[in-house]
Specification:
Layout (H helix, E strand, L loop, with lengths): L1 H11 L12 H30 L3 H10 L2 H18 L6 H21 L7 H16 L3 H9 L6
Helix pairs in contact: 2-4, 2-6, 3-4, 4-5, 5-6
Length: 155
């Protein structure tokens, strides 16, 4: 029976194709852990990062005034973080959201080093690690997103 199963598996999956969604218990646990990480990051970005900017908390306002970006910059970054947090929870947008938030963290790192003397420079670097993991693990959704965005050509 194992020969039949092996033959069916070999015939149904093209050579070199890796199946991302594993049916094993280990694969299931990994998917659950990844999803939990996404939810935790989404909550962090929405509540701890975006909310103070969007409500104009004094600490956020002071930082953006020091940058010279004012309230417009503060609200813009807050909106970008909130949109990224929401997109981390939408399957077709997960990888792109993680990449966009990662890019935002690269900018935050540069600002921390150049303007704030590196006081909190470790925070964006630490956040880049799980965002990179999510972007890589959910990269299969990028093709789904492209199919949604690009019109089909009729031949």
């Amino acid at each position: 029976m194992s020969e039949t199963t092996a033959a069916v598996t070999a015939d149904s999956t093209p050579a070199g194709v890796v199946i991302a969604e594993s049916a094993t218990a280990r694969g299931r646990r990994a998917r659950i852990a990844l999803r939990a990480l996404q939810v935790a990051l989404a909550l962090f970005y929405a509540i701890a990062s975006a909310l103070p900017k969007l409500i104009g908390h004094a600490s956020a306002a002071e930082s953006f005034e020091r940058l010279g970006w004012g309230s417009a910059g503060m609200y813009t970054i807050g909106v970008l973080e909130l949109v990224g947090a929401i997109a981390l929870l939408i399957p077709v947008l997960q990888s792109v959201a993680a990449m966009a938030l990662g890019a935002l963290m690269v900018g935050a790192f540069v600002v921390q080093i150049s303007v704030f003397d590196g006081q909190y420079a470790a925070t964006p670097v630490i956040l880049i690690v799980p965002l990179t993991l999510i972007a890589w693990a959910r990269r299969g959704h990028n093709a789904d997103l492209l199919r949604l965005l690009l019109p089909r050509r009729r031949v």
